[in-house]
């Protein structure tokens, strides 16, 4: 156990360790000895130690004494350290320190030699001695150096008192040299630095190599001055020879440099873009965390790579060229497709910049921004610029471009070109009633059917909404174009299933022919559109060729559309009010608001002449809201004038009852804005409008009814409502259509229908209003069958608000057969 321990100590010793016997023969030679002298253990063991480590040419008496010492001739030197010259196996000289210790083992004497290479220490000591000598010489021989040195040159005794100081102390510390003499240095050192300063002086006096230290020295006016000290200790003179330099500005510069470095590092690390650098061979030098995140490679992995493995093959050439241009001093930017560690691809906008140090380019900086999404959007935008996003068909831009090329070809080859303009009928109703998602699906299905029924070289395009255009190139005959149009109409008319809804739609098509109907794309499209409008007027599923006279009719319709749009802006719409009379009390209990158009040229226009157009061009919502708001405001005004409160009825169109409608919120907003109580408002909905989408309408009506607004079914008897739906509806009143009232006094069927309707309504606790009353016979019939209310020209035509207000105020109502206000 002890032998193993001893062997381990020898082999792991930091110094060369040699054991020799009494005859100076080596019997142990550890690894450090091998390293120091170059002799392997097997080479050294058995040799004389002096023969291995002492140069043979050292023949002075001193070195002979050393030989004798090693040959155990002078035992007085045992256990002491001596410094001698040594020899390496390869012949170069060594400076070594040798310590020999005797060891007695079983009565036999051995010697252990601990050997240390002291070349570096001797060099340092020599340099120190030289510096100290030079400093002393400078201080003693040339006082002018002290007087003109920008640094403080001083001597300090072992107790820490100034003995001498150069004139620079006045400028740097504010003290004249005489003021410092015999003054303790520590008194003028910042309190927080005193302990460290005293420790530094002690360390230097203890023989440690010269070293610098810093502290803060207190200026005479109290502020701290940052100082750098370089001191040597002279044992002979018992003095510290010191040079103290004011490094206040240098520290500020250093601090600013450090701050700048930290700012740069922070920018580098936290920049959202990938930042990296290469050497001139294209190998990574550094990369920030954004680069690692973007590429999926760790910093360690990147340190062994070049950029090329990250670049997709199609971008390698441009990336390489950019790198070499940057190496030549020319910044470069480019877009590239790259590959992550996991193999996924991404796109970047990269910039390469030369790294210039002392006027030389030493590498390349790179900045890469992930533009994958941007590129995707760009490609999407490019696609959308020429294709319809919903159907994938060419849009108007691409259509016009293709038409221009087709016209040029037709002109060059003397061929015909056909243009079909197709519009779906009643698509808005489908879209509003079934929902926009179903409408979109319908358009996609129609687009597919159109493409399936034309030639591969023909163009099917979507202009927007439910409008499509088909361009038929190399048209042989006009009849062939008509056949294509009819095939398309038949294809569209085939039943369509939208999820769980079966639907049949129709279309109208107009056609124009080059060069007969126009010589450019715009004219051909316009004329095909005019023909389509003519086909719509002739009924669903119709195709019509363009005729010149169509321009006049369509122009008139367009003028009417424009004037109707301006009617709202110009306050040309007005409301007239028609009273409803309670049959039992003979009093006015309600009024119906009816819109009129005060046309600047035609005078007063009835709603039947412009409401259908408003529905078709999408203006009915604005007009309906205007009617609602105006009627509520007027009714509230009458109440504020002290007139008896009555209910005002406002008609809602089918377009205001679609699933996308917000009429319920609009009603609440209008009531809040006008201040009218909900119980004085009634909404009239035609039976046919109600049945178009009964399920979605039902929820909306329930919400409206719960707010206190009354609901009546207008034109009852003309639709196809079932009693099962009727009993679920949150309605208050049935208004019997005037077509049943007109002949009730003479037509038994009409009389039976009206009688049954009144009885059914009363059974369901609903009020009944008879519309279109024009004779006293009708009044008597309705009264005898307990109809609740009547309305019609016999009682009053629709009146302007001021006239009706006058009647309500003064009771000057003239009614036949004893009816009174």
Folded structure, characterized:
There is one protein chain. The chain has 821 residues and is of the alpha+beta class. The chain is elongated. It has 31 helices and 32 strands. The chain is 43% helix and 26% strand. The longest helix has 23 residues.
What is this structure, in a nutshell?
By secondary structure, this protein is of the alpha+beta class.
What topology does this entry show?
Blueprint: H1 2-12, E1 16-21, E2 26-29, H2 31-37, H3 41-44, H4 49-53, H5 61-70, E3 81-87, E4 93-105, E5 108-117, H6 119-141, H7 143-148, E6 152-157, E7 162-165, H8 168-173, H9 177-180, H10 194-205, E8 212-218, E9 224-234, E10 239-246, H11 248-270, E11 274-279, E12 284-287, H12 289-295, H13 299-302, H14 313-327, E13 332-339, E14 345-357, E15 360-370, H15 372-386, H16 396-413, E16 416-424, H17 427-434, H18 436-452, E17 459-464, E18 467-475, H19 478-493, E19 496-498, E20 501-503, E21 507-514, H20 521-537, E22 543-545, H21 550-569, E23 573-582, E24 588-599, E25 603-605, H22 607-616, H23 620-640, E26 647-652, H24 663-674, E27 681-686, H25 687-692, H26 694-706, E28 710-716, H27 723-726, E29 733-736, H28 738-741, H29 748-763, E30 767-770, H30 776-784, E31 789-790, E32 799-800, H31 801-810
């Amino acid at each position: 156990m002890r032998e193993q321990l001893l062997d381990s100590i020898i082999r792991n010793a930091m110094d060369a360790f040699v054991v020799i016997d009494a005859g100076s023969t080596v019997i142990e030679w550890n690894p450090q000895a091998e390293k120091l002298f170059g002799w392997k253990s097997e080479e050294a063991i058995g040799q004389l130690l002096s023969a291995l480590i002492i140069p043979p040419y050292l023949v002075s008496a001193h070195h002979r004494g050393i030989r004798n010492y090693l040959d155990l001739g002078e035992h007085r030197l045992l256990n002491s350290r001596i410094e001698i010259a040594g020899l390496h196996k390869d012949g170069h000289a060594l400076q070594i320190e040798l310590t020999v210790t005797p060891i007695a083992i079983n009565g036999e004497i051995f010697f252990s030699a601990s050997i240390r290479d002291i070349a570096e220490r001797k060099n340092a000591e020599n340099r120190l001695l030289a510096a100290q000598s030079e400093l002393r010489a400078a201080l003693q021989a040339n006082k002018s150096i002290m007087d003109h040195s920008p640094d403080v040159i001083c001597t300090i005794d072992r107790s820490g008192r100034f003995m001498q100081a150069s004139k620079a102390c006045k400028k740097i510390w504010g003290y004249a040299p005489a003021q410092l003499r015999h003054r303790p240095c520590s008194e003028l050192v910042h309190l927080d630095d005193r302990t460290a300063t005293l420790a530094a002086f002690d360390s230097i006096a203890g023989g440690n190599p010269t070293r610098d230290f810093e502290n803060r020295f207190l200026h005479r006016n109290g502020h701290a001055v940052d100082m750098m000290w370089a001191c040597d200790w002279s044992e002979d003179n018992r003095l510290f020879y010191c040079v103290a330099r004011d490094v206040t500005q240098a520290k500020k510069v250093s601090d600013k440099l450090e701050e700048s470095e930290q700012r740069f590092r922070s920018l580098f690390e936290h920049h959202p873009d990938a930042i990296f650098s290469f050497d001139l061979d294209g190998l990574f030098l550094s990369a920030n965390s954004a680069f690692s995140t973007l590429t999926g490679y760790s910093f360690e992995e990147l340190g062994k790579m070049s950029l090329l493995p990250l670049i997709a093959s199609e971008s390698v050439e441009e990336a390489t060229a950019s790198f070499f241009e940057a190496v030549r001093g020319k910044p470069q930017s480019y877009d590239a497709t790259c590959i992550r560690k996991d193999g996924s691809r991404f796109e970047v906008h990269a910039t390469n910049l030369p790294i210039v140090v002392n006027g030389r380019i030493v590498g390349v900086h790179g900045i890469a921004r992930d533009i994958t999404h941007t590129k995707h959007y760009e490609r999407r935008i490019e696609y959308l610029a020429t294709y319809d996003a919903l159907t994938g068909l060419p849009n108007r831009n691409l259509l016009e471009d293709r038409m221009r090329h087709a016209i040029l070809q037709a002109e060059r080859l003397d061929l015909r070109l056909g243009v079909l303009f197709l519009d779906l009928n009643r698509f808005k109703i489908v879209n509003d009633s079934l929902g926009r998602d179903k409408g979109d699906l319908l358009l996609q299905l129609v687009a597919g059917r159109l493409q399936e029924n034309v030639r591969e070289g023909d163009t099917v395009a979507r202009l927007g909404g439910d409008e499509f255009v088909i361009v038929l190139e190399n048209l042989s005959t006009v009849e062939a174009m008509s056949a294509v149009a009819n095939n398309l109409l038949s294809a569209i008319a085939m039943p369509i299933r939208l999820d769980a809804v079966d639907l049949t739609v129709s279309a109208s098509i107009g056609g124009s022919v080059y060069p007969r109907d126009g010589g450019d794309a715009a004219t051909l499209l316009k004329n095909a559109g005019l023909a389509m409008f003519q086909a719509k007027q002739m009924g669903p599923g119709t195709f019509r060729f363009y005729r010149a006279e169509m321009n006049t009719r369509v122009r008139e319709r367009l003028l009417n559309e424009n004037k109707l749009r301006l009617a709202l802006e110009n306050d040309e719409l007005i409301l007239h009010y028609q009273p409803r009379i309670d049959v039992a009390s003979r009093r006015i209990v309600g009024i119906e608001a009816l819109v009129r158009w005060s046309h600047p040229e035609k005078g007063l226009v009835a709603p039947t002449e412009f409401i259908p157009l408003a529905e078709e061009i999408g203006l009915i919502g604005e007009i309906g809201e205007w009617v609602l708001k105006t009627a509520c405001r007027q009714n509230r005004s009458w109440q504020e004038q002290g007139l008896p409160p009555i209910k005002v009825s406002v008609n809602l169109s089918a377009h205001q009852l679609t699933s996308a409608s917000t009429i319920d919120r609009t009603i609440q907003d209008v009531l809040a804005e006008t201040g009218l109580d909900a119980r004085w408002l009634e909404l009239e909905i035609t039976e046919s409008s109600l049945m178009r989408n009964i399920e979605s309408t039902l929820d909306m009506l329930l919400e409206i009814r719960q707010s206190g607004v009354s609901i009546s079914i207008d034109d009852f008897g003309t639709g196809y409502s079932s009693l099962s739906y009727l009993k679920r509806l949150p309605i208050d009143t049935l208004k019997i259509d005037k077509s049943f009232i007109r002949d009730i006094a003479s037509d038994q069927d009409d009389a039976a229908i009206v009688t049954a309707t009144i009885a059914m309504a009363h059974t369901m606790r609903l009020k009944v209003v008879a519309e279109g009353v024009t004779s006293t016979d009708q009044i008597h019939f309705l009264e005898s069958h307990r109809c609740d209310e009547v309305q019609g020209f016999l009682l009053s035509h629709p009146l302007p608000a001021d006239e009706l207000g006058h009647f309500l105020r003064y009771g000057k109502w003239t009614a036949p057969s004893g009816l009174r206000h």
